[in-house]
Amino acid sequence: MLKGKTIIVGVTGGIAAYKACEVVSRLKKLNADVWVVMTREAAQLVGPLTFRTLSGNSVISDLFANELSSLPVPHITLAKKADLILIAPCTANVIGKIAHGIADDALTTTVMASTAKKIIAPAMNCEMWRNPIVTKNVDELRVAGCEFIGPVEGRLACGDDDVGRMAEPGEIVAQVLSSTVAQQDLKDKRILVTAGGTREAIDPVRYITNHSSGKMGYALAQVARERGADVTLISAPTNLSAPLDIKPIRVQSAEEMLEAVLAHYDQTDVVIMAAAVADYRPKIKDQKSKIKGKVDINLKLKPTKDILKTVAKQKDRVEKVLVGFALETEDLIKNAKKKLKEKDLDLIVANGPETFDGDKIKFSLIDKKGKVKKFPQQTKNQAAQTILDRLVATM
Known about the structure:
Pfam families: DFP (PF04127), Flavoprotein (PF02441). In the N-terminal section; belongs to the HFCD (homo-oligomeric flavin containing Cys decarboxylase) superfamily. In the C-terminal section; belongs to the PPC synthetase family. 32% of the residues lie in helices and 23% in strands. It has an 8-stranded mixed beta sheet with strand order 12-11-8-13-16-17-18-19, with helices on both faces. The protein has a 5-stranded parallel beta sheet with strand order 2-1-3-4-5, with helices on both faces. It has a two-stranded antiparallel ribbon with strand order 6-7. The protein folds into 2 domains: 6-180, Rossmann fold (3-Layer(aba) Sandwich), CATH 3.40.50.1950; 190-394, CoaB-like (Rossmann fold), CATH 3.40.50.10300. It is α/β, with parallel strands linked by helices. It has helices spanning 19-29, 48-55, 74-81, 92-99, 106-113, 126-130, 132-143, 169-180, 215-226, 254-265, 307-312, 332-342, 380-394; strands at residues 6-11, 33-38, 84-90, 117-122, 147-148, 152-155, 161-165, 190-195, 200-201, 207-208, 230-235, 249-250, 270-273, 280-282, 301-303, 321-327, 347-351, 360-367, 372-379. The radius of gyration is 24 Å and the shape is globular. β6 (152-155) and β7 form a beta hairpin. The protein has 13 helices and 19 strands.
């Protein structure tokens, strides 16, 4: 996919430098011509030999090194060759240097000399990331056209659980693909995606939910973003990292999800309801229920509001494209067609429960005319591409 593309991977002195090895490896497997440029600090964490072996090219950390004789004026030669510059990880120090035009080493000099698109994957302590100076520098680089991916939340090297981790290598490579070769057939389209399984509270401690992992919705959001869409992701609880540069709107219940969908509906061209929304919710008790002995408990449930049906009744419905999901344990196609008609959908994805929480999905697509097309089991990322291909055809 990246054959013929030259990508410079800048590696700076963050502990996440070891993850850059996987980034380089993945880019090479996609047939990119990869050149690694390291700061002196990065070379203290990962040996240049590792990157030279993975990339198949010389590693640049000193512009005056003898082994670079094949690259006259290395930073200019590489800058002209590059289709994209990726800096992963990127420290607060290097963000600041680039933002203020400082070019005092091999990496910053190469960045300054290149007109190629630049992607930055920050990694640093949470308080460094929140520092107003860093925030200002990041904003300036965004204005200058740099793309950012991450940082994400998780356990940091200092022991804190907070924002600051470098985005995962797979997500970074997906961003590279999006910026270099991905088709942009959804550019200027505003797509709202819901994901995850809602939680309906029983009391302040307990809740009822379902087995949804949110993986299908997150895959749809990521692929839509890769294809140029402006994506709003409304997410019920999941264990997933935010895809690409999307910041999910976090909700818990079906009611909260409905409110979030309606709040963003007017600014949306397409609504994809991939979330597993509860059909019923219990009456919430103010205090934790006390259970004495082993006795049966009866929960009184009442229906939640139907989000898709509510959206379909909006006055500008004809200007929107609505996509729903139907997970059925019996009569899959029959029940999916019924849901398609009742909720006035343009497209529905029908699947069984066997891959509800998995990484793969076997599904069928049914369009507004009732035409059914079945697809074999595939990864949810592949399925997202297939669904969006069909979506584009309906627009």
